[in-house]
Predict the structure.
Amino acid sequence: MRELSQGRINIAIAGTGLIGRRHIEGVLSEPRAALAAIIEPSGSARDWALAEGLPRFASLSEILAESRPDVVIDAIKQSARTAQTIALERSRP
């Protein structure tokens, strides 16, 4: 499992559109929070995450197989939310 920050709230953000990037900026500027990962399947998001030095996963299922962030902010398009919700439900203990 991927190591998460100790003593800070580990936040993953699903979606890197306009709203997702605003959430990312907010998390990065908050000293009590750590950006655990971004969740986005697109190649442009992969390139952007790499350039920014951010951990990136293609799906919620992928990150949950590796780590357990404290919070997942859902900033994806509404039409794609069903698959993310199912992945979250399946990951619950």
